[in-house]
Amino acid sequence: MAIEQTLLGSGPGRPPGRPRSERAERAIIEATLDLLIQEAGVAGVTIEAVAARAAVGKTTIYRRWPNKEALIIDALATLKGPIPDLAGESVRDDLVALARAVRPSQDPRLDCVWNIFGGATKHPHLARQFKQTVVLPRQEVMRAVLRRGIANGELRPDLDPEVAMAIIAGAVTMRARSLSPDEDLPEDFADQVVDTALRGLSSGSAPSCTGP
Amino acid sequence: MAIEQTLLGSGPGRPPGRPRSERAERAIIEATLDLLIQEAGVAGVTIEAVAARAAVGKTTIYRRWPNKEALIIDALATLKGPIPDLAGESVRDDLVALARAVRPSQDPRLDCVWNIFGGATKHPHLARQFKQTVVLPRQEVMRAVLRRGIANGELRPDLDPEVAMAIIAGAVTMRARSLSPDEDLPEDFADQVVDTALRGLSSGSAPSCTGP
DNA sequence: CTTATACGAAACGCAATCGTATCGAATGGG
DNA sequence: CCCATTCGATACGATTGCGTTTCGTATAAG
Lengths: 212, 212
Hints:
The structure is a homodimer.
Chain A: H1 22-38, H2 47-54, H3 58-62, H4 68-77, H5 91-102, H6 112-118, H7 124-151, H8 161-177, H9 189-199
The structure holds a DNA duplex.
């Protein structure tokens, strides 16, 4: 093995013997998330596949986690960040940033939403953990943005933030999976969704702009 | 076995021997869909579980379908209908009807979206079949409604139907799974989504008109 | 009654996966 | 050097699922 051992704690409480490889740990988590997406859900994540992909012995996995579910729970916990810094200039820009964060083509690891939510009835622990670490924090941020917009008059006073969140997050998440595997989401899809949602689908007949 | 044999074709082209049980066929399809939802995806659908739930021998399944994937494809095909009759009175009412159809708490069989879409990379056949029989027809209807609205002035002339569809379908689908298993989608959620999307999130003031 | 097929139940061989155990080598502190 | 622990590799028994086959029974046509 290479000489990339990490020292972790050289402090006093350090246990004797060879320290655990931190590289192995990262590789295992990474491999778990990859498999969770590429294979079809929790059932597709086999310990042996994780070990193979992480170039690690099964022993190394079972020394750290008692079973597959615990491993997946820890792997999901690493998806918590990062939530983008919000400029706070306009509600519109913040919403676009959040919509991009919900599904940036950059971080395909979030695609495991489908498999985690799909297996919610079979694996309630995982679904709860995923909601707690991944979904709720993002919802919290978006809710705050919406509230701010309502407070300062940028958004309708009678707007239901829950409905608005479902619209924005749902549109991006759904559209990304309705495509063929080869096509890709247009770069500015998040912008389009937010702008369309803000303006509304209906023609401005009643209040304002009836078009340029 | 009971005396619920179905005759199918007593006509001339009828092959000799005992005819196949139509009841068994229905039960198998039904059991397959149930498992596809309750268990976590395609991997959770085992032939033996299907046989047990349908009260049928494995032989009876393999006589009809060559393997598991073919069975699931046929099972998904039965999800194609019914698409609700559209009153055609107003675009708004039609959209509400469609939003309800995308996820009526009535037909939880559509919940397998999550498992099929999630397994899209692993089972492209199933994803394609599901899109073909279930997703596309509904999209087609909704697209027609949106086009009509654009044509007759009820909707913005510059509205992108694809974005609008993602907003409505995505909001309903997503929100339904973001809930705890015990809570249920409010009866009028589809109405809220459509009304919010039509009016737009932003307050009716000017800024939206400065866009591109 | 004969023939042909479908039925459910059970057992088969095969492969995959689980979680555990054992091995020799590697890597740390004392 | 010595000891404790981890490393990757490999083998293990147990379980599960696949797809096939066999068996005795049931249900049709002629």
